[in-house]
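User: If you would, consider this record:
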Amino acid sequence: MSKQTDDLFKSVVSHAKEYGFVFPSSEIYDGLSAVYDYGQLGAELKNNLKTYWWKSMVQLNENIVGIDSAIFMHPSVWKASGHVDGFSDPMIDNKDSKKRYRADQLIEDKIERYQKDGKDDKAAALQTDLDTALNNDDLPRLKEIIEEHNIVCPISGTKNWTDVRQFNLMFATQMGAMADGAEQVYLRPETAQGIFVNFLNVQKTGRMKIPFGIAQIGKAFRNEVIARQFIIRMREFEQMEMQYFVRPGTEMEWYNKWKETRLKWHLALGFNADNYRYHDHVKLAHYANAAVDIEYNFPFGFKEVEGIHSRTDFDLKQHQEFSGKKLQYFDTEINQNYVPYVIETSIGLDRLFLTLLCNALVHEDLSTEERTDARVVLKFPAPLAPVKAAILPLTKKDGLPEKAREIMAQLKLDHNVQYDEKDSIGKRYRRQDAIGTPICITVDHQTLEDNTLTIRHRDSMLQERIAVADLEKFVADLVSWSPMLKQLI
């Protein structure tokens, strides 16, 4: 990471804390590694991102419905899914620093360094070696690669490594009033299995016909040993997933369709298309016959924000075998019974949140020949902004606060708005810029005379005068979801 990109990332992290978006969890107790709390503005932004995903996934698609399954599930679910036996990362310890690392990530970091140093041939060869070792589950080879390329511990600077071992990422706990006889259960490491075990419930009660999808937003938990890069990799995180059930033999057609559809969804946020790329998986999960990541170019490089996977019929067949219940669909069009194949779209809400912050945070130099000036602004798409409008009386007297409060009462029925009368109007504008509020509504003495207001726009800083009678429609049009959603139809 260059100093410029490092500074940008530090700026995003500090801005998120300073303005109430993200706080370290349990901070008064010095925090808890890889766990974060979303503050008052962060909670609003997260909810708006969920709304955008839910509207585009469920509301726009007649054949996709949403559920909300429990975090705790029967232990056999995770045995059937393969998580009990195979949900692991290759870990390696440095004997001097006593720190543990993911072996593949150490090697990936080395590949990035080779690329930055212009050693593309070395980078390509190392990537091939890594892919081969991962595909073969060759843990000794991973250690050999680390030693061959002189990869050192970032803390101790030494190469005193242990062997590479697999580490299961699931959190286990006990369910029951007494320790004796309590049943071991797991905090779910993904939300997808809650969809699969409810496949028949949804299909029958919703009278769903293939192809159809089931969507869900929910928390997942992974005991990540290596937690880094702020909210990119956390132990408690939120997923937005959709499982799309299709007729066997048509899965690649639907896989390609959802691959294109999901990238289109990200670009509708207004981000630069150059900051996105597809990354096809070389090593496929045990359940998949195709997989691709949509990656975003964060200040620290390209990282996955969403995965699209062709999961075949693995999950439903496994649950059918372990539960003894048939999980099949009778297709009247071809007069045939079968276990459907599945296309999955899975997006990390926390990573999407960080994508939005990184893309929206702008430092603007507003200096002129007469004076030096600058501002920090979050240029969120208006529907996603945590606060939709700020109502600002020009002064604290002459009936202006009363009029401003009247307007506030009118708008807060439909929108999250703020009232602010402290400091100069310029300072109040800057405060709203910093939290991404699309417009500021200024109530002044002219408002009392002709019932008009000044609208100051965040991005352009231009101002216009409108009638109070037109304000509700003006704000509703500004923050409407329709322009974003129409890009997806």
